[in-house]
Amino acid sequence: MEARIKWVEQVSFLGETESGHAILMDGPPEGGGRNLGPRPMELVLLGTGGCTTYDVIHILKKSRQNVTNCVVKIEAERAVEDPKVFTKIHFHFIVTGKNLKSEQVERAIHLSAEKYCSAAIMLSKMADITHDFEVIQEIP
């Protein structure tokens, strides 16, 4: 996997992925930026959330669960001093579907956290990561 970061101006950077996508990262005005894009550490959280959500949906579908929606709310805390690494991250999954089994949702989250989500497993070496979930049953 390869990526490229190009400095644009002040604290703005253009990230380009091997798959041909680009994203502008920027800092807040008080830090010399113009707030034109997300902060790099916000992207770390988004990437980790995307990784674990992908896993959970994939596992639930393989388990023949009729999942129709999944939202993950992420709360994180960072160290006060440099390096301001993540110290706590909490993932709250809201899984919607028809006839969903809570134990299958719990299993999918556990498998993602312990085996499949490279980003979360990597961050867990530094941060305390917790998970919880709720299941919303759609009426068939």
Specify the number of helices.
3
Task: Indicate the CATH architecture of the largest domain.
Answer: 2-Layer Sandwich
The total domain count is 2
CATH class of the largest domain: Alpha Beta
Percent of residues in helical segments? 25-40%
Number of strands: 6
Overall structural class, as computed from helix and strand content, comes to alpha+beta
Mean pLDDT: 97
Query: Unreliable runs, pLDDT <50, ≥5 residues?
Result: none
Query: How are strands sequenced across the largest beta sheet?
Result: 1-2-3
Named CATH topology of the largest domain: GMP Synthetase, Chain A, domain 3
Main sheet summary: 3 strands, antiparallel
User: What would you give as the CATH superfamily of the largest domain?
Assistant: K homology (KH) domain
Strand/helix succession:
EEEHEEHHE
| Global geometry | elongated
Using only CA atoms, what is the Rg? 17 Å
Terminal-residue CA separation: 43 Å
Strand content: 35-45%
Walk me through what this model shows.
Pfam families: OsmC. This is OsmC family protein YhfA. With 140 residues, this protein is α+β, with helices and mostly antiparallel strands. The chain folds into two domains: 1-38, N-terminal domain of TfIIb, CATH 2.20.25; 40-137, GMP Synthetase, Chain A, domain 3, CATH 3.30.300. It has three helices and six strands. The chain has helices at residues 40-62, 102-116, 118-123, and strands at 3-9, 12-17, 22-25, 66-78, 86-98, 128-137. It has a three-stranded antiparallel beta sheet, with no helix packed on it. The protein has a three-stranded mixed beta sheet with strand order 4-5-6, covered by helices on one side. Strand 4 (66-78) and strand 5 form a beta hairpin. The model has no long low-confidence stretch (mean pLDDT 97).
